[in-house]
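Form 7-S
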Amino acid sequence: MRDEHKPKQDLIHEVVGLRKQVADLKEAAVARRRVEDALRDSEAQYRALVEHAPAGICRLSREGEFLAVNSAFAAMLGYASRTEALEMARIGGLFADEEERQRVLRMVAPGAATDVEHVQLRGPGGRVTALHMRARIADIASAHD
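Output:
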C-alpha cells in the first residue's frame, strides 16, 4: 500500500517545487522590473540635468570625436540644436582642424579632468569659436565651461 502512494507523493512534491519555482520567478521578474524602472528614472533625471545645465557639456571619444552635446554647448557654437551640432560633428568634426583635435588630446590626461584653454571649435558656416574646455579622456566624459 505504501508503494502505491509514493509515486503520488513524489508528484505532489514535484508540483509544490514547481509552484515555488514559478513564484520565485515571478518575484524575480517584479524585482527586475523595479530595478529597470529605477534605472530609466535615473537616466531621465541625468539627461534632464545635462540638457538644462547652463554650461556646455559634451561627450568625446578617446579619438576626440564628439559623441553627444547638450543644447548649451550647441548654442555656444551657434548651432540651432544639439542635433545640428552632432550632424556637423559627424560630417566634418567640430574641432577647427585636425591639429587642434590632436593638441587637445595630447593635453588631456587619461582619467583626470584637465583644463584646456582656447580650444578652437567650428560653428555654422565654418566660423571658429574659442572655448575653455575641461575634459577627461575616459570612455565617455568631457565637459565644457
